[in-house]
Amino acid sequence: MAKKNKDIAVGLDIGTTKVAALVGKKNIKGKIEVVGFGQTESMGVQNGMISEMSQSIKSICMAVDKASKSCGIEIREVLAGIAGQYIGSRQHSTTVKRSKPEKAIQDYELDQMISEVTSLTMEPGNQILNILPQQYIVDGLATMNPLGLYGADLVANYHLVLGKIAAIKNVGRCILDSKLKLLGLTLEPLASSAAILSDQERLNGVVLVDIGGGTTDIAVFKDGFIRHNAVIAMGGMLITKDIQEEFKILFNQAEELKKKVGCATPVAVRDNRNIILPPFKGRKELKISIKKLAEIIEVRLKKLIQEVIYEINHCGLENPKNVLINGIVLTGGGSLMHHIVPFFEYHTGMETKTGQPSHLLTKQGKFDLDSPIYSTVVGLLNEALFHIESKPKRNRKKKHYTAALEEKISQVIEQV
User: Fold this and answer.
1) What local confidence, expressed as pLDDT, does residue 312 receive?
2) Which helix (H) or strand (E) covers residue 174, if one does?
3) For the chain, does the N or the C end have fewer beta carbons within 10 angstroms?
4) What's phi and psi for 82, nearest 5 deg?
5) Order of strands, edge to edge, in the sheet holding 181-187?
6) What is the b/e burial string over 187-201, where b = at least 16 CB atoms within 10 angstroms of the residue's CB?
């Protein structure tokens, strides 16, 4: 096995249904060239949270081993994502009365303000995962970048991403026990957004809806920065279980039905369309109405959309449906459901489309990853590449979303 190239990074997505490891590097045009990929069934994860340590470690090792063998590169460290039903957010504002307003605002002042935020007292068991600068105000003037400006009063508005310390430790322990070094942890919706959203979409206002196997991640962006994030404990696996229970079939059969002929709305299905399941263990063949299948899927999707609408309405923006100009972007495996885009548009009243990580990836490659299924892992790889690019530099590493708390998160992991 060849030694690890210093320009190579690895993103690790520990999901409810799959664990994926992606190995890549940046080419001269700044695009990601994927050189290795490994994926396996996820074990020991429920609703995005580690539930069985040994099973999760086994899945991680299998995925990383496959990725390593696919490119002949020894994988020593990874950047992983964190999500789950215990991820939340809040807004925070910090005000500083500058002692020397006649001097321009410098890096160290912004770093000091972030340091104050990291020392905030949280509810027992909670940890700040990300500090996302949203806006600065210098003597009443709003700006995204106050460096070089003069003023006496400096206000910083932050979006804080919060998570349970136990969730961080569980992910960290799984990675460490897999004989890997943890390069960093980042929030999965942020990774996905970097992979599929354009700067213009984040500026105009957009809602990212990442429909995974166990959870659905929501991230609302406006004026170029995140305004709200949430995790809904509902994903594609619940749809599969609904199908399984209704037709009394195996889970794998229900999953296959959902993927091949599942539809978001019965209106789009002809009444006489059926599919025949062959006999199994003494059971006669089963005729399943595709329209009935769509009715089951529709019920669950309506519940999911209700939760999505709730999060949009509570994102902190006035008239969010009007100001989020670019509407909703769906990604994740659940976004591949037939007719899900018009279904979302009808029930939310917002323009909707499906997003995949096209703009980050090179067009050539032996791995076909330009799919909503891989938005998160591509985004995690992109974040990992940023980390290794930033290591030898000292030009405001903390400016990036996840780098600001890299040391603090590492300290939490070291305590496990």
Assistant:
1) 96
2) helix 165-177
3) N
4) -135, 135
5) 32-41, 18-26, 9-14, 77-82, 181-187
6) bbbbbbbbbbbeeeb
pTM score, two decimals? 0.85
pLDDT at 278: 85
- Please provide the average confidence, as pLDDT, over all residues in the chain: 88
Ramachandran region of residue 412, left (φ > 0), alpha (ψ -120 to 50) or beta? alpha
> Could you tell me the two tokens for 349?
């009243």
At 330 the three-state DSSP class reads strand
Helices (H) and strands (E) in the chain, counts: 12, 18
Composition of the chain by helix, strand, coil, percent to 5: 40, 30, 30
Q: DSSP assignment, residue 284?
A: P
The rounded distance, in Å, linking the Cα atoms of 211 and 394 is 37
Residue 3: band (very low, low, confident or very high) from pLDDT cuts 50, 70, 90: low
pLDDT digits (tens, 9 = 90+) for 89-126: 888 999 999 999 999 999 999 999 998 998 888 888 88
Average pLDDT over residues 180-206: 91
With beta carbons less than 8 A apart as the criterion, state whether 207 and 232 touch.
no
Which has the closest alpha carbon to 337: 372, 368, 370? 372
249: three-class secondary structure by DSSP:
coil
Q: Residue 147 burial (CB < 10 Å; 0-12/13-18/19+)?
A: middle
Q: How far, in Å, CA of 8 to CA of 405, rounded?
A: 22
Collapsing DSSP states into helix, strand and coil, what is residue 42? coil
Q: Is 365 helix (H, G, I), strand (E, B) or coil?
A: coil
State pLDDT tens for residues 375-414.
Answer: 999 999 999 998 888 765 544 444 444 444 455 555 566 6
Condensed to tens digits (0 to 9), the pLDDT of residues 26-76 reads 988 889 999 999 999 999 988 788 899 999 999 999 999 999 999 999 999
